[in-house]
Design brief:
Layout: H1 4-15, E1 19-25, E2 32-37, E3 41-48, E4 51-58, E5 65-66, H2 67-75, H3 87-106, H4 108-134
Antiparallel strand pairs: 1-2, 2-3, 3-4, 4-5
Length: 138
Amino acid sequence: MVSDAMTRLAERLRAAGLVAGQSKQGAGFGDGYERYSDGALEVTLQSDRGQEVVYLRATGEGESFDADIWRAVLDGEPAPAGALRPAADQCAFVERQLDGLRRLAAHPDATGELAPKLRRAHRDRFLRSDLGRRSGQD
């Protein structure tokens, strides 16, 4: 991974017992991803055209959502409209909450209740971002 924050998070994930799985390194701009899993939680560290994003997914669920969406749902706040938080903030959230995220992902009832909230927060963020641009607020 490109940034120190992503490198530290990768080290933390391995130290916590998440196993490195798929990875891909692109030809330019540091593009690529690394995926870690413990059987319940999957964490993907992605760099695409210089933007770094941390995606999380409960292994039984089909969709991955960025750390900002998870943070918003777990904190009971709206996800920030527009651009993602810096990679360092995303990584710090996952590092702080890793144990809780793992417990949550391992509990089928909790992930079943969480999935619609994650989808709604994801949708709402982009609706707010789009409305802000249309009204000249962005």
